[in-house]
Design goal:
216 residues; 2 domains; five-stranded antiparallel beta sheet; 8 helices
Length: 216
Amino acid sequence: MTHPTAVEHALAVGTPVRCGAYRLDLTTGAWWWSDQVYAIHGFAPHEVVPTTELLLAHKHPGDRDRVACTLDPGTGPGEPFSCVHRICDASGHERLVGVVGETQGGPDGAAVAVGGYVTELTGVVDDHAQAAATASIAAAAQSRAVIDQACGAVALAGRTDPRTAFDRLRVASNDANVPVRTLATAIVTSLPELGGEPGRLVGFLDALLAPTHRAA
């Protein structure tokens, strides 16, 4: 297998992640963890003796029944396996980890050990969620700005207040079965062509929002 430090260096491209190595001796049941695996589980190096019981105790209750890949992957020697699941570290914090490895065979071909790597994915998932939320908020803000501009135009043309103007847009949106944002974009996009003339603006909005026009 690739040395752990090489794997960590490769995984460090992009969002930094913590990755450590493990090995389970199938003949004795003894585990070996690298310092990083201890850290992922919330322990200082060699603070505890890694055992199957300890490993299971730190699996998230909702994932405990499906983490056999780390204990009994069911693959022949040399065949890789992987799984993603949650753990609860020594401080009770939930972490998401990915486990990859392979079963190692002895001279007679029988499986004698399981070894591989544990990678903490919590930060990667959190960063992705934050990026998605930021993009969603930005898109919502952009849509809100367009709708506000359209409401201002409708309010000006109808000599009414912005709330009444929005209600008119909402009714037109429901009748035409199109999003308010789509109507608002059409209005804002057309404003420069109308040259700021109130009469042309009124006529354009009446045509755009009229029921007969929407039904066509």
